[in-house]
Amino acid sequence: MKASDRPRGFLLLLADGFDEVQVTTLISGLRGAGLPLTTVGLKRRGIRGMHGVVIVPDTSLSEVLRSLPSVGVLIIPGGEAAIAAWRADPRFEDLVEGVERRGGRVAVVPEAASLLEGTRVTALPLPLAVQPLETTPTWIQPLVEAVGETVM
Questions:
Q1: 109 and 77 in contact (C-beta within 8 Å)?
Q2: Is the pLDDT score of 129 beyond 50?
Q3: Domain limits of the chain?
Q4: Contact predicate 15/47, CB 8 Å
Q5: Helices (H), the chain
Q6: What's the pTM value of the predicted model, to 2 decimals?
Q7: How far is residue 84 from each of residues 3, 36, 54, 125, measured CA to CA in Å?
Q8: What is the pLDDT of residues 103-125, one digit of tens each?
């Protein structure tokens, strides 16, 4: 597959109980680098993180599944309650397998890797570490390479 034919952009999953540090790091890092990111909630209204931070997702899982876009990387962050919510939703596996079928990749933090057990999906590991804001976080590079994007 030529780089120009690769799926582009990122989907970031959100469910109640998400890990706020991971999610806000991902959002600010990817969007700050000028990369296309869409947040996807289990529901369309505000999603409450594990410490009460509320994020209103760009779209819902139902909306994404109606017209599954060709996406470069589906990102699954941590948070025990969020992981449990995704595990309990029968649409989750359809989303993951649909992204991979269309040539995309799936990236997970280590605590969420169990969500992919029993699937044929091979995940990109996503080790998150806090870095100074003036640098491009090192965890962005493997994601960028997976979709052939360029960091601004």
A1: yes
A2: no
A3: 3-147
A4: yes
A5: 20-32, 61-66, 80-88, 91-101, 140-147
A6: 0.79
A7: 35, 27, 18, 19
A8: 888 888 888 888 888 777 767 77
